[in-house]
Amino acid sequence: MPPYIHPPGGTGLPPPIATINLNRYVFYVLSLLATWILPASSCPPSCLCSSESLTVDCGGRGLSSLPPVHLLPPGTRSLLLANNKLASLGATSFANFSSLEELDLSNNYLDNLPAGLFRDMSNLTRLTLHNNSLTVMDRDLFQGLGSLQSLDLSLNGLSAIPIGLLDELQHLRWLSLVGNRLHGLERAAFEPLANLQHLQLGQNPWECDCNLRDFKHWMEWLVYRGGKVDALECTLPKDLRGRDIRSIPVEMFNYCLQLEDENGGGSEGARSGQGGGPPCSRSALNPSGATPVSDNNGSPGVDSPSTAGGGGGEASTDCVRARYRPVSVRRAIGTVVIAGVVCGIVCIMMVAAAAYGCIYASLMAKYQRELKRQPLMGDGEADGEDREDRQISSVA
């Protein structure tokens, strides 16, 4: 064994083993604390993080892709990504974001969002997709957003709202569809929004024809229960251009029923415009369970879940969704009552006129007979007087 060489300027004593073990223990503790403290204070680059409001602001940074979201501080409630250059998002871009309550993706270039993108955001209450390039949306896009209360889809290129897109947004209170390319809307797509209070529909090329009739009835029901709807101005037909569809009398849509009867040939499947085939049940359209709908009178209800085709609960691909045809029982009863009263009055007037005519005719006939008799009687008396005068003159 070689002799121990003393370092220059040292004491000549080797370091004690206890000191070495203590240094290792301190290093281990510091490393462990670093793993706990650094994530709590981390923030994605080019973003501003607020520990007080739990907000991460990445807006206006010219981002073409999402920042490393795994660096977000735990418990982040607001993620602001507005005014960037985001064009697409992956299906797992927002995985494990259950604490997020607000997400702002406005003023980007998003044109196609994958189904289930927000599936893990169960606590999200506000979603802003204002001013993007969305033209179509998958019906499962908003799956998992059961707590959403505000949804902004304004200034996109949407031409339709697919049935089923809003089925899980039962707590939604504010919805904006301003500035899209919507010509008409299906009533069935909005029936699940039982708590909706404010709906914005302006700046769309609405066609106020039979395709918008059922949605007009739904808007009237929304306003009746205290909701607010902004102006829905008609673009077509020309005679209704510029008019708010809410001010158009429902009688102007009566011809739609005649068109359905003429085009349908009496069959329910053809009337609905879907051709033949069995009607779809609610469970077939939404296998996950019951969906609140509203009946013909506008009152919300819940359809009990049932299996399509008698088993399995799987949606049948051959079923046909029947179009909703509103029925106003009170209006029909009122029309029948008014028509009955008017017909009764007319009948009474006709009977009175006939009776008056008969009485008047009989009186006139009697008067004419008496009038004819009086001259005859007068002539007979005159002849008798002449005879008496002639007899007296002859005797004389």
UniProtKB/TrEMBL annotation:
Pfam families: LRR_8 (PF13855). The keyword Repressor does not apply. It comes from the Eukaryota. One of its GO terms (biological process) is axonogenesis. Residues 266-278 have a biased composition (Gly residues). Residues 283-307 have a biased composition (Polar residues). Residues 266-316, 377-396 are annotated as: Disordered. InterPro entries: Cys-rich_flank_reg_C (IPR000483), Leu-rich_rpt (IPR001611), Leu-rich_rpt_typical-subtyp (IPR003591), LRR_dom_sf (IPR032675). It is a single-pass membrane protein; Single-pass type I membrane protein. Residues 1-42 form the signal peptide. Keywords: Cell membrane, Disulfide bond, Ion channel, Ion transport, Leucine-rich repeat, Membrane, Repeat, Signal, Transmembrane, Transmembrane helix, Transport. Residues 204-257 form the LRRCT domain. Residues 387-396 have a biased composition (Basic and acidic residues). Belongs to the SLITRK family. This is Leucine-rich repeats and transmembrane domains 2a. It comes from Cyprinodon variegatus (Sheepshead minnow).
